[in-house]
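From: lab user (bench 3)
To: helpdesk
Subject: output format question, protein + fe (ii) ion

Hello, I'm new to running complex predictions and I'm not sure whether the block I got back is the full result or only part of it. Here's what I submitted:
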Amino acid sequence: MTTGIEKSRINMYEVLLCITNAGDLISPEVSNHHQQVAYFAYMLADRMGIGQKQKKDLVLAGLLHDVAAFSLNERLELIEAEPVTAHSHAFRGASLLSGFSPLENAACIIRHHHVPWDHGDGKTFRGMKVSPLSHILHLADRVVVQANKNAGIITQVPAIRKSIVEQSGSNFMPEAVAAFEELCDIESIWLDVAYKPLMYILPGIVAFDMMELNWEETEGLTRLFSGIIDFRSPFTANHSAGVAASAEKIAEIAGFSMSEQKMMHIAGNLHDIGKIAVSKGVLEKPGSLSKEELVTMRSHTFYTYRLLQAIKGFEVINKWAAFHHETLDGKGYPFHLKGDSLPLGSRIMAVADVFTAISEDRPYRKGMEYEEIVRVLKKMVQDEKLCPYATALLFDHYDEVNDARIVAQNEAKIRYETMLREG
Ligand SMILES: [Fe+2]
Ligand SMILES: [Fe+2]
Ligand SMILES: [Fe+2]
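Helpdesk reply: Thanks, we reran it on our side. This is the complete output you should expect:
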């Protein structure tokens, strides 16, 4: 099966934006924060005469620096102040993002973005060298968190300037503060910071030459993102990894081409990206959800669809990822598509999602055994919830699919534990 999509190139900026936008859905208080920090850090570095390659790494770091601050509370605390625990999300973020070479430098910058300058002692931290770029990111972060979103920005600049200059040398690197003072007089820079559609103009401003990824690289990048989606809660810590591996395996059995198998893996990594918009309280609630909580929970596939829409070349992947709660009888959600408008890829994803969810161990229960899994899936086929063909592919190659799931989930578990250790 080929669909002429073998050679697609994916724009890395669009994929990164997708994950930052997902994080911003948690609450309006944190929206645009990553873009603002990326922008301001770039402007500081530009003033300081830093080279283009390093500025680009800094922008990448800015766009992702708080992705491992998983709960809204943690995000809000970081906007209020820098608690003693501030290094945790920075170290976790670095741990999550390292291992994908285009983001290796950004990961190093992120690791130390809350290290104070401490009169030069901040050149190292816990025996590691700290990049000056981390200090620039730190300053940019502390500048933009001071801007009150509900008031005009220009009139706030003198107060922000005063507070930053007071901390020059102690908290912030003096060279960066000098560059900051020069930026204080340029209105356009501040208006940009407060400009809501900043994300759309950012690449143009920072002369960001779009890095293009092939399917293999996109898979590597989205594997990191599956961690950002799953590692928020021990309840889901390796769910997406299992879904991605089993969906890819079933797609291979169904005769999908190599590229399509990779695409299926990518779709699996991202299928629950919309869950980032769902609060941890709802995700982890023991027992049944209230009506309102259920509505929130069920909206996650809608957000998956809207978020992935921003990535050119992801049209097919999006359908495979976001339709995993649509059912053949049209009673699924949120689009209420009927069987004939559900592509095989989406049907496979739905099977992989249920199969993984009932097979995996969760902190509060063990995964089901084979007989029970078969019983549940068969019942869902009978009730027109799952596609009989996609489910039969799983049953006919059960061990193969299950082994792929177990290997992938064990690997994700190791990444999760490493991240917890480093954070
Ligand atoms: Fe941070
Ligand atoms: Fe931040
Ligand atoms: Fe899922």
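A quick orientation on your result: The chain has a mean pLDDT of 92. Let us know if anything else is unclear.
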